[in-house]
Amino acid sequence: MNHALKSLAEAAGIVIEWQDSQDRPQQLDDATIKGVLAGLGYAAGSPADIKASLAAIERLHAPETVADWPPLVVGEIEQGIELPGTVAVGTDYTLIDEQGRSLSGQIDAQGRLESVAEPGYYRLQIEGKTRRLAVAPHRCMDVTTLAEGGRQAMSGLGVQLYGLRRRGDGGIGDCEALGRLAERAGRAGLDALAISPVHALFPHQPERFSPYSPSTRLAFNPLYSALNNTADDTDASALVDYEAVSRMRWQALERDFAALSEADRQALNAFRRESGETLENHCRFEAISEALGPMHTWPSDMQDAKSEAVASFSQAHGERVTFYAFAQWQVALELAFVQQRAIDAGQRIGLIADIAVGVDPHGSQAWSRPEEMLGKLRIGSPPDDFNANGQEWGVTGFSPQGLIEYGFDGFIATLRACLHGAGGLRIDHIMGLSRLWLIPEGASPTEGAYVRYPERSLLRLIALESWRHRAVIIGEDLGTVEPEFRERLDQSGILGMGVLWFEREETEFTPASDYPARAVAMTSTHDLPTVAGWRLGRDLDWRIELDMLGEDETPEQQREVRKHDIVALAETFGIKPDADCDTWLEAAARHIGATPSPLVLLQLEDLLGLEEQPNLPGTLDEHPNWRRRLPLTVDEMFETSDVMARLRAMTTARAGAGPHE
């Protein structure tokens, strides 16, 4: 390998050598390195290119003067704060906190700021320049602190919001159904509802309904606004018809907007002022999409959010921009109200929001903040046992250098948006805080590479926003995760996930008492089989029908393995393998309830004993992903004896579970 190219790749954070899912050593070739470097914005076609790219990285990570520092310095309380560049020992500086109070100090012998006692955001004035300073607590908000002397063994439900049902909902779950669930769950002794992502999607392309491929993570999906519908029978359907639901709900929003009172207009204007340019950009994007169609078809001048063409369009179509701001205002108010209903009903956490790993490259966030994004790179995964060719997920994300260069503004804004009206946050693919598999646009996933991210700063910012919002943080750490990274997550107070199907050693399932005490125990996830479905082999049926088995797997072999697993799990549960479904469901609920986990989550599909899972990874139209509706209304759930028996099995076990350590 070219030595200069290798130096550039390492400086850019590209992982040249790594171990795959089978612990086999892998190494990138020069062509792959150059492709990923180009996607990161670093030319490597000649020695001169490499030299210039190295110099650019050096300026970013080791600036010579304070004037060249990035906008944000990130540190931690009660320890000296490292600076981006060298400053003479004894140099005076001033910190100004968010209340306007000043604190003077001098650069210490290690070239650091003196320790700061209080977490928060500060202005740092040094050598005639001003930068922002984020000082994080040592750890994220934890369940013990939220318990405030009350019960520490908390429990909750995993909820696919679109699947909830109430009378007159028009065919999709919404904030009113979620609010009712929050109240009923709180009164039943639960503390949390972990919901599917509520990110903004594409209202003019209702067929693009995956909550994990959003237009932006900085705005909400107005389809979840609670609307009353009595003239449509779509609320009785088993699957969400997104085209019909979208048409009906946007028409209702138009009617509500047209009927706004002057007082409501003033409140909307206040919301817009408070939300600032982030909201305005999203609403401009929606108005342009309404007029011109998908972003990739727009004229080039409209693809620049800061162009005169966009400004002129927005002025000429100001009322449409205002309408989309109204839609955001409505759903933001309703989500906050749901959280209040949860807390008023006795929940300690309330809503746990979900943040997708990336955004659509032709969506609102990539359009409005391109300087922070990856641009010509896509997020995915390398080849593994499940996908021999790897995966390209069709989403993009933050650029590692863009995060630093723009003061982590987009990342902080994303955290704040997701934590609006929430008491917790689940971060999808938490490993992405440390490294992501990035693939050049149009290339095969095999032509991608792991790229390192500014992990320490990201973890600190999460901890800071966690404390500011009094929100627990959960990291989706399933699959291949470096052991050292999992330890750093634990040190940061981010809870992992202990999923029933993965808590096992070879042929035996883990007893409840041996579950990790720093993870959320749960029966399943949206991507995995339900308890009833696993017992009946519904996940195997789907994989066999869609030819999704591995090269060395046969239907007969997989069904035989499942038979043995059923016996093993039944033994762990203390039931007979041929016990009826109700017995299995109660046993699963009791099992996670008895774990030492600080929080356990029972999926609604398992509470109701459903056989089908919400999403089947690796499929598009072959499986009704993100469309399945629950068979009972929220109120009916809590009036059904079987359902309540399962809920009591979990909560009774929680009452007897020892406090976590």
TrEMBL record:
Pfam family for this entry, one: Glyco_hydro_77
Keyword Transferase: yes
Top-rank taxon: Bacteria
GO terms for biological process, alphabetical: carbohydrate metabolic process
Catalytic reaction(s) noted: Transfers a segment of a (1->4)-alpha-D-glucan to a new position in an acceptor, which may be glucose or a (1->4)-alpha-D-glucan
SUPFAM superfamilies assigned: (Trans)glycosidases
Known EC number: 2.4.1.25
Transmembrane segments: none
GO molecular function terms attached to this record: 4-alpha-glucanotransferase activity
Class of enzymatic activity (EC top level): transferase
Homology family: Belongs to the disproportionating enzyme family.
UniProt protein name: 4-alpha-glucanotransferase
Organism listed in the record: Kushneria phyllosphaerae
